[in-house]
Design goal:
By secondary structure, the protein is of the alpha/beta class. It has 20 helices and 13 strands. Helix 7 packs across helix 10 and helix 12 packs across helix 18.
């Protein structure tokens, strides 16, 4: 790394108040610390308390600093992340995020006080549009770290390209040929894309936040790599006229095939014990994240589709936000079709408790992943070479699903283009295409090729080394 290796940086990391963002930021912190740099990780007290522990050998170089959360009307006390509220209240969490600007200013003032080292960088998330001017007042440069698929930002476009409403059901001209024509929103998803351009309860639209932080920072880092998104980083650099740098997938390579990251007092989790008794690559793992806006009908059709497919499955069941179960009953048993668990007993396991997802995907019994296509889950699946059955719901998930379908690593569940509804037959057909039919061998082979690429730790380290070089190179750039 030359000069970059000799320059030790002091970097402040400030993620959005969602664990799907905080965890990748923590991985970025660990990689910076492993290279000898000092990191200050900012969030609120409850969020910091819920983060995984920092490895002992890195903890001297990673400092967790709690900023006091503001009171926001409509947010319950103690709600400090999107995990604490139903999806419709995420806009209020953004308002709370904006309320952290004053505590951040106080933190930075103290950090640059006489006799103390001024931070070299503030690296922050899409939501923190108020941070660059505060950091600039203290002569601290900012970079953006976006944990989304880079192609999504390219699709939504820079400010100059979105001056008028566009058809989100078609790939924009400015994205071609980096994005194929199939990568676009469906009609039932386009409402989310339109909504991203409209002010929400925080008073600011998500796209205005994103545009401001890209325009007011020196460069943008993505949790991705050229092998996953060929040509997209050059496209973004050209579109936004700012350097766009892939950091690699930031996956912690410490879970070996079949290992268990959920050991507690030497006890292997029941989920992994169940997988131990299943034949190799016979199980489809089903998990739709913690914030998917599922309905009772969605749950029923998904369950009946798994039953109809006739394959073994492990379902990490999450009760949808705002959906209640009868007092004293099991959440899954109360919300799934009558008799479903009895009829599928022996080949299926519905698990309402915590599931060690990385260890599950690493397990030899798992042959595919039925997923909502969150970017983190998609990366985890491909790191272990698991093909995808895709059931996207919100935000960038539809674009991720189309991108992965183009890469030949999975299929989407068929849906009504108008209202987004899906049925058991569509679920069963998609599952069988990947798990049972001859075509599944092609998906599995392509996923294995992705595993080889994403599992190349030397290549992934090179991406991170380039991020450090950029932090050194652009630190004193006054442009």
């Amino acid at each position: 790394m030359g000069d970059a290796a000799a320059t030790k940086l002091d970097v402040v990391l400030f993620p959005w108040l969602a664990f799907g963002h905080m965890i990748p930021y923590l991985e970025l912190a660990k990689r910076l610390a492993a290279r000898g740099h000092a990191v200050t990780f900012l969030s609120t007290p409850r969020n910091l308390a819920r983060l995984p522990p920092v490895p002992a050998h890195l903890s001297p170089r990673i400092r967790l600093v709690a900023l006091p959360p503001p009171a926001v009307e409509g947010l319950p006390e103690g709600a400090e992340s999107t995990a604490d509220v139903p999806p419709e209240n995420n806009e209020l969490v953004k308002k709370a995020c904006d309320g952290l600007a004053a505590p951040f200013a106080a933190f930075l003032s103290d950090a640059v006080a006489r006799g103390r080292r001024r931070p070299d960088w503030v690296v922050h998330d899409f939501c923190h549009h108020a941070i660059p001017p505060i950091a600039g007042a203290h002569r601290v440069p900012c970079a953006a770290f976006l944990i989304v698929q880079a192609a999504t930002v390219a699709f939504l476009g820079p400010r100059w390209a979105r001056e008028a409403p566009e058809d989100f059901a078609a790939t924009p001209e400015w994205c071609r040929p980096a994005l194929p024509p199939a990568v676009a929103y469906r009609r039932h998803e386009a409402g989310w894309a339109v909504g991203a351009f409209r002010p929400n309860a925080s008073g600011v639209s998500d796209m205005d936040r994103t545009w401001e932080i890209i325009e007011r920072t020196r460069f943008t880092i993505y949790r991705s790599c050229e092998e996953m998104e060929p040509g997209v980083f050059a496209l973004l650099t050209d579109l936004f006229r700012k350097p766009t740098i892939p950091a690699g997938v930031l996956f912690q390579p410490d879970v070996a095939e079949g290992s268990d990251s959920s050991h507690s007092a030497g006890v292997r989790s029941e989920v992994l014990q169940w997988l131990d008794s299943q034949p190799p690559k016979s199980v489809i793992y089903v998990a739709l994240g913690s914030e998917a806006p599922l309905t009772a009908n969605n749950l029923h059709e998904l369950a009946l589709g798994l039953e109809l497919a006739g394959v073994r499955f492990l379902w990490a069941f999450r009760k949808p936000a705002g959906m209640s179960s009868a007092p004293g009953t099991d959440a899954a048993g109360d919300l799934l079709p009558a008799g479903f668990e009895h009829r599928t007993r022996g080949r299926g396991l519905v698990w309402s408790g915590w599931v060690p997802q990385v260890a599950v995907l690493a397990h030899a019994a798992v042959g595919a992943f039925l997923t909502h296509c969150g970017w983190g889950s998609t990366i985890e699946s491909l790191v272990f070479g698991r093909p995808l059955v895709m059931l996207p719901f919100v935000v960038d998930q539809g674009l991720i699903a189309r991108t992965m379908a183009e890469r030949g690593v999975g299929v989407e569940v068929a849906r009504d283009d108008g209202d987004g509804s899906f049925g058991k037959d569509g679920v069963a057909a998609a599952v069988r295409r990947v798990m049972v039919e001859e075509e599944g061998k092609v998906f599995a082979s392509n996923a294995e090729k992705m595993k080889e690429v994403l599992g190349d730790q030397r290549r992934q380290d090179q991406y991170m080394d380039e991020v450090v070089r950029c932090l050194v190179r652009y630190k004193d750039d006054n442009c």
